[in-house]
C-alpha cells in the first residue's frame, strides 16, 4: 500500500513521537511538534498512538492514494478536500485508491497531522521514523517530501467513518497564546526589571520560527546583572560557559529575542537559558503562526506538574472516546 | 476582478529584492504562473504565482507587511 505526493506543500515531513535517548549525543528527540494532535490522529484511524504520519506546516500537501484506507487530519484548521468534497478535521473518513486529498487556506493553528490506517512504514532510524531534516535522518530519505515521492503504508484495518474527537478535547493556543514558563538555572542573570518585563511585555512569533526553535520579538531588550564573565564564556553577558540545553528551554542571544528550543533543537551551546516552557504547553507552540501574539506566564514547579497532569487527563479522555 | 490570495502566513514582498522594482505594475500583462510576489516564512521565500491570465491592477498587501494565509495580496482582471 502506498500514497503519492502530488504537491508537497511548504515543508511536509514524516513524523512519529520521536527518538528519545540520543540528545546527549547531539541528536534531538524530534517527532511531531504537536504530539497530542498526532496521537489523536492515529487513534482516529485505529493505529498505535506512536505510528508515523505526516506533519505539514502552514500549507497542506496534495496526496493521491494507491489503496483504500482510513484517514484522519488533526491539529490546525485547514479545510480538507477529498476529490474536491469537504471532509471534517479531527474525524475519520475513508479514502479509495485513486482519490486525491488536498487542502484549502489555513484558518487556525500552524500544523496538521495526517494519519493513515496502518501507519507510514518507512524504515526506522534509531528506533523512530521521525524526519530530522538537518541531520538527514529518518522519515523518507531523511528529508521533507517532494512531488512524486511514493510512501509505503503498513497493513491496517479500515475503521468506521465519522469517529471524532469532541471540540472540548481539541486544545489550541488562545489569542494571545499564554505560554507558561518555569524560571531556570540562569534566571538570576537578569535584572529584576528585565525579569518582570519578560512576563509583562507583549511578544510576537517571528517568521523564522521552525522545528528547531520558535523565536519571539517585540519585548524590551534584556539587562543583565553585572559580573566578570567566567573564563570561556566570551564577553557578551548573554553568553555562558557551554552547557546543555533542554527541550523547551528559552535562550536569548544578545538579550534581544527569546528562542524556545523545540523538537529538532541543538542539545547544547553557550547561551544562557532563562527558564523553560512547561511540557504541557509545548504542543501549543507547534500551532503558532508567524506574527501571532504571545504572553509568557510565570509558574512554579507545582503548577507545572499540575498542568502536565491535566494534559495527560485530556489524552486519557481522547483514548476513552475513541477506545 | 480576480484576487490573488496568500497560500500561507508570513511576510509579503512585492519586490524580488529591496533594490529592484515590484514584480508587477498596474496594466502589466499577467500570464498563468507569473510570480507576483514573495512570502517569507521559516527562513524560506515562497513565490506567489498568478493562477490565471489577465491584467495586473494593484497590490493590496503592502510591501514587507505581515500577512495571514488567505489574505488578498493583489488584484488582477
From TrEMBL, chain A:
<dbReference type="InterPro" id="IPR003778">
    <property type="entry name" value="CT_A_B"/>
</dbReference>
<keyword id="KW-0378">Hydrolase</keyword>
<dbReference type="GO" id="GO:0016787">
    <property type="term" value="F:hydrolase activity"/>
</dbReference>
<keyword id="KW-0067">ATP-binding</keyword>
<dbReference type="InterPro" id="IPR052708">
    <property type="entry name" value="PxpC"/>
</dbReference>
<feature type="domain" description="Carboxyltransferase">
    <location>
        <begin position="24"/>
        <end position="314"/>
    </location>
</feature>
<dbReference type="Pfam" id="PF02626">
    <property type="entry name" value="CT_A_B"/>
</dbReference>
<dbReference type="GO" id="GO:0005524">
    <property type="term" value="F:ATP binding"/>
</dbReference>
<keyword id="KW-0547">Nucleotide-binding</keyword>
<protein>
    <submittedName>
        <fullName>KipI antagonist</fullName>
    </submittedName>
</protein>
<dbReference type="InterPro" id="IPR029000">
    <property type="entry name" value="Cyclophilin-like_dom_sf"/>
</dbReference>
From TrEMBL, chain B:
<dbReference type="GO" id="GO:0006633">
    <property type="term" value="P:fatty acid biosynthetic process"/>
</dbReference>
<dbReference type="InterPro" id="IPR000089">
    <property type="entry name" value="Biotin_lipoyl"/>
</dbReference>
<feature type="domain" description="Lipoyl-binding">
    <location>
        <begin position="1"/>
        <end position="77"/>
    </location>
</feature>
<feature type="region of interest" description="Disordered">
    <location>
        <begin position="1"/>
        <end position="27"/>
    </location>
</feature>
<dbReference type="InterPro" id="IPR001249">
    <property type="entry name" value="AcCoA_biotinCC"/>
</dbReference>
<keyword id="KW-0443">Lipid metabolism</keyword>
<comment type="pathway">
    <text>Lipid metabolism; fatty acid biosynthesis.</text>
</comment>
<dbReference type="InterPro" id="IPR011053">
    <property type="entry name" value="Single_hybrid_motif"/>
</dbReference>
<dbReference type="InterPro" id="IPR001882">
    <property type="entry name" value="Biotin_BS"/>
</dbReference>
<protein>
    <recommendedName>
        <fullName>Biotin carboxyl carrier protein of acetyl-CoA carboxylase</fullName>
    </recommendedName>
</protein>
<keyword id="KW-0444">Lipid biosynthesis</keyword>
<keyword id="KW-0092">Biotin</keyword>
<dbReference type="Pfam" id="PF00364">
    <property type="entry name" value="Biotin_lipoyl"/>
</dbReference>
<dbReference type="GO" id="GO:0009317">
    <property type="term" value="C:acetyl-CoA carboxylase complex"/>
</dbReference>
<keyword id="KW-0276">Fatty acid metabolism</keyword>
<comment type="function">
    <text>This protein is a component of the acetyl coenzyme A carboxylase complex; first, biotin carboxylase catalyzes the carboxylation of the carrier protein and then the transcarboxylase transfers the carboxyl group to form malonyl-CoA.</text>
</comment>
<dbReference type="GO" id="GO:0003989">
    <property type="term" value="F:acetyl-CoA carboxylase activity"/>
</dbReference>
<keyword id="KW-0275">Fatty acid biosynthesis</keyword>
<feature type="compositionally biased region" description="Basic and acidic residues">
    <location>
        <begin position="17"/>
        <end position="27"/>
    </location>
</feature>
Amino acid at each position: 500500500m502506498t500514497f503519492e505526493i502530488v504537491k508537497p506543500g511548504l515543508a511536509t515531513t514524516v513524523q512519529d513521537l520521536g527518538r528519545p535517548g540520543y540528545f546527549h549525543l547531539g541528536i534531538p528527540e524530534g517527532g511531531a511538534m504537536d504530539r497530542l494532535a498526532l496521537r489523536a490522529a492515529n487513534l482516529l484511524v485505529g493505529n498505535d498512538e506512536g505510528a508515523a504520519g505526516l506533519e505539514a506546516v502552514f500549507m497542506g500537501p496534495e496526496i493521491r492514494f494507491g489503496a483504500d484506507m482510513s484517514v484522519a487530519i488533526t491539529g490546525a484548521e485547514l479545510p480538507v478536500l477529498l476529490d474536491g468534497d469537504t471532509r471534517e478535521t479531527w474525524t475519520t473518513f475513508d479514502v479509495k485508491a485513486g482519490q486525491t486529498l488536498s487542502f484549502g487556506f489555513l484558518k487556525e493553528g500552524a500544523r496538521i497531522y495526517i494519519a493513515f490506517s496502518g501507519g507510514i512504514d518507512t524504515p526506522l532510524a534509531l528506533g523512530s521514523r521521525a524526519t530530522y531534516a538537518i541531520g538527514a535522518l529518518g522519515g523518507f530519505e531523511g528529508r521533507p517530501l517532494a512531488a512524486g515521492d511514493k510512501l509505503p503504508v503498513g497493513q491496517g484495518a479500515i475503521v468506521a467513518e465519522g469517529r471524532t474527537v469532541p471540540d472540548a478535547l481539541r486544545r489550541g493556543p488562545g489569542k494571545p497564546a499564554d505560554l507558561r514558563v518555569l524560571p531556570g538555572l540562569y534566571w538570576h542573570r537578569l535584572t529584576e526589571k528585565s525579569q518582570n518585563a519578560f512576563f509583562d511585555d507583549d511578544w510576537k512569533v517571528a517568521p523564522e520560527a521552525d522545528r528547531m526553535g520558535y523565536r519571539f520579538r517585540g519585548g524590551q531588550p534584556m539587562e543583565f546583572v553585572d559580573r566578570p564573565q567566567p573564563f570561556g564564556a566570551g564577553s557578551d553577558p548573554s553568553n555562558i560557559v557551554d552547557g546543555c540545553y533542554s527541550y523547551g528551554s528559552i535562550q536569548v542571544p544578545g538579550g534581544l529575542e527569546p528562542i524556545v528550543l523545540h523538537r529538532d533543537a541543538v542539545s547544547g551551546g553557550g547561551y544562557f537559558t532563562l527558564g523553560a516552557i512547561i511540557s504541557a504547553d509545548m504542543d501549543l507552540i507547534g500551532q503558532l503562526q508567524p506574527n501571532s501574539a504571545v504572553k509568557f506566564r510565570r509558574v512554579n514547579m507545582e503548577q507545572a506538574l499540575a498542568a502536565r497532569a491535566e494534559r495527560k487527563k485530556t489524552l486519557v479522555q481522547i483514548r476513552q472516546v475513541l477506545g | 476582478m480576480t484576487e490573488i490570495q496568500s497560500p500561507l502566513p508570513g511576510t509579503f514582498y512585492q519586490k524580488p529584492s529591496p533594490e529592484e522594482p515590484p514584480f508587477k505594475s498596474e496594466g502589466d500583462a499577467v500570464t498563468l504562473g507569473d510570480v507576483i510576489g514573495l512570502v517569507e516564512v521559516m527562513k524560506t521565500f515562497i513565490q506567489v504565482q498568478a493562477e490565471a491570465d489577465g491584467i495586473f491592477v494593484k497590490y493590496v498587501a503592502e510591501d514587507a507587511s505581515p500577512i495571514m494565509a488567505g489574505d488578498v495580496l493583489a488584484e488582477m482582471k
